[in-house]
Automatic annotation (TrEMBL), chain A:
SUPFAM superfamilies: F-box domain. It comes from the Eukaryota. PANTHER family: F-BOX DOMAIN CONTAINING PROTEIN, EXPRESSED, OS03G0653100 PROTEIN-RELATED. Residues 117-163 form the F-box domain. Residues 63-111 are annotated as: Disordered. This is F-box domain-containing protein. It comes from Digitaria exilis.
From TrEMBL, chain B:
GO terms for biological process: jasmonic acid mediated signaling pathway; protein ubiquitination; ubiquitin-dependent protein catabolic process. Part of a SCF (SKP1-cullin-F-box) protein ligase complex. The keyword Methyltransferase does not apply. It comes from Digitaria exilis. This is SKP1-like protein. It comes from the Eukaryota. Residues 136-182 form the SKP1 component dimerisation domain. Involved in ubiquitination and subsequent proteasomal degradation of target proteins. Together with CUL1, RBX1 and a F-box protein, it forms a SCF E3 ubiquitin ligase complex. The functional specificity of this complex depends on the type of F-box protein. In the SCF complex, it serves as an adapter that links the F-box protein to CUL1. Residues 1-21 are annotated as: Disordered. Residues 23-84 form the SKP1 component POZ domain.
């Protein structure tokens, strides 16, 4: 069982889609501090997830509105976030001018006594912010722990995008085997705001949400669409990339038509995103060959067609990739 | 040393065409004089460009009281090297942020240029570049410093830059909890 990586936790026939690796980990850690550490019993893990389904509603009046992608929250409602960073009053809402060229006072010779290399701290704040801005979020987080001045700097310049980096669990999405819809488990108070937004663009799914309104009110979860893949905060649903926490969603462009000479294929979407490394994500459409069940080869999921196309060279299957960086 | 060569050439230039010079003389805080091509200075430094355009360039050495001779030497060195490499407008990137546009990677020679510098020289150069409004040089130097931090733990960063830890143990634990995702495999 891997907590890390793609955080699909197969538990007794259940594939568990945690909204974010960090969340899953966070929970496990919390439990680990209470009881002897791993290996986790599958059943216990599930229970512990149920028990520690931490739900906090956080609004970031200072941070969110301007950092979040424009499409996200035009309704002005408080967002139910996976993010629960304490709203930082320290965070100033002004966007610092990219490069103010301020005259800096010459470094006094008194200061040089303290140390030669602490000189880094004497750099103008904007320059230092410029340095830290180049680091991946994990690096920025590390710098925030270096000293108080740097923490203030990171916060003042909003170098860590709190909206992208959730820290606690607001709900769990589960793909049960044998069910076609992904289930969302979360606290009833947040479930409605959380999941309806997922389907606002999809009539079919919206209807299914209505149908099960009463049920979900009772059970505290709502049926949702099928989550094809997930990676940290992002979900891949019906050709959309969705961040349920910020209600951001992006429709993938229609993929180029597949080759006509390849039958029996379908594409399986895979999402790759690590917010601690880069704000961008990529979607891989991996062509799969439909298993052909031949009477003579009842047990083999790989039929003759699959064999034919999986041989090297040349495979007519095309791996299509969409990157948010290039938007292609 | 290219600077010396530049100086020598500049000496000659001064004699030949006193009235129509194509270099500017810069004076460091400790009184040393450096020659740099006017074209390169104007192209690479917004502050120098302004000074040249505004006619506040002193033929006997424009005072840059904020910049020490070592840093100024590096600045001039950079300008000369830049003039020798292929100058292109594309090199001058606009405001860079991890969250918005990708930073244009330093070129090989720029990398070498900052790699050979000591920490102190590098920081001085950053400051000089900031002061003179040399966007590209600032990019390159900031990039270098951020590379020095990359992948390091807070302890390692403190060690590299000799920064004093002014957190108490409890504060540090709290701040790590806040950002637990960043330390999950420490």
């Amino acid at each position: 069982m891997s907590i890390d990586g793609c955080n699909i936790l197969p538990i007794a026939g259940v594939a568990l889609h945690a909204p974010a690796r960090t969340c899953a980990y966070h929970v496990v850690r919390t439990r680990a501090s209470l009881q002897p550490r791993l290996p986790l019993q599958p059943a216990k893990l599930l229970l512990s997830f149920g028990g520690v389904t931490v739900i906090r509603t956080a609004t970031h009046p200072a941070v969110s509105p301007r950092l979040r992608p424009a499409a996200s929250d035009s309704r002005g409602r408080p967002s139910t976030c996976l993010v629960t960073g304490e709203s930082r009053s320290r965070v100033s809402s002004h966007i610092p001018d990219p490069r103010p060229r301020k005259m800096k006072k010459p470094r006094s010779h008194m200061e040089t006594d303290t140390s030669t290399t602490a000189a880094l701290l004497l750099l103008p704040e904007d320059v230092l912010a410029d340095v830290l801005r180049r680091l991946a979020p994990r690096g920025v987080a590390a710098c925030r722990c270096v000293c108080k001045a740097w923490r203030a700097l990171v916060d003042a310049h909003a170098l860590l995008r709190a909206d992208l980096l959730p820290r606690s669990l607001a709900g769990i999405l589960v793909n049960f085997h044998g069910l076609y819809a992904t289930e969302l488990f979360s606290h009833p108070s947040t479930a409605s705001r959380f999941s309806v937004e997922l389907h606002v663009d999809d009539d079919l799914l919206a209807r299914s949400v209505e149908l099960d309104e009463d049920l979900s009110r009772h059970l505290g979860y709502r049926p949702t669409g099928v989550v094809e893949d997930h990676c940290n905060v992002l979900l891949l649903i019906n050709n959309m990339v969705v961040n349920p926490a910020t209600r951001w969603c992006f429709h993938l462009p229609p993929s180029p038509p597949s080759r006509a000479d390849v039958d029996y294929t379908y594409d399986v979407g895979h999402l790759v995103h690590d917010p601690t490394i880069s704000p961008h994500y990529e979607v891989f459409l991996v062509p799969r060959l439909c298993p052909l069940f031949d009477d003579s080869e009842n047990d083999s999921p790989v039929g003759p067609v699959a064999e034919q196309y999986s041989e090297w060279p040349p495979s007519p299957c095309v791996l299509r990739v969409f990157s948010s960086k290039t938007e292609r | 040393m290219e600077v010396d060569k530049g100086k020598g050439e500049a000496e000659e230039t001064r004699k030949v065409a006193e009235a129509d010079r194509d270099t500017v003389t810069l004076k460091s805080s400790d009184g040393k004089l450096f020659e740099v091509s006017k074209e390169a200075a104007a192209r690479l430094s917004t502050v120098l460009a302004g000074m040249i355009a505004g006619g506040s360039i002193d033929d006997n050495g424009t005072d840059l009281k904020q910049i020490g001779s070592e840093a100024l030497e590096n600045v001039v060195d950079y300008c000369n090297k830049h003039a020798n490499s292929i100058p292109s407008a594309a090199l001058i990137s606009s405001s860079i942020s991890f969250n918005t546009a990708p930073f244009k990677e330093p070129e090989e020679w720029e990398r070498k240029f900052v790699d050979r510098l000591s920490h102190d020289a590098l920081f001085d150069l950053v400051e000089a570049a900031n002061f003179l409004g040399m966007e590209r040089l600032l990019d390159v130097t900031c990039h270098k410093i951020s590379e020095m931090m990359k992948g390091k733990s807070p302890d390692q960063i403190r060690e590299v830059f000799n920064i004093k830890n002014d957190y108490t143990k409890e504060e540090l634990e709290e701040i790590r909890q806040e950002l637990a995702w960043a330390f999950y495999d420490d």
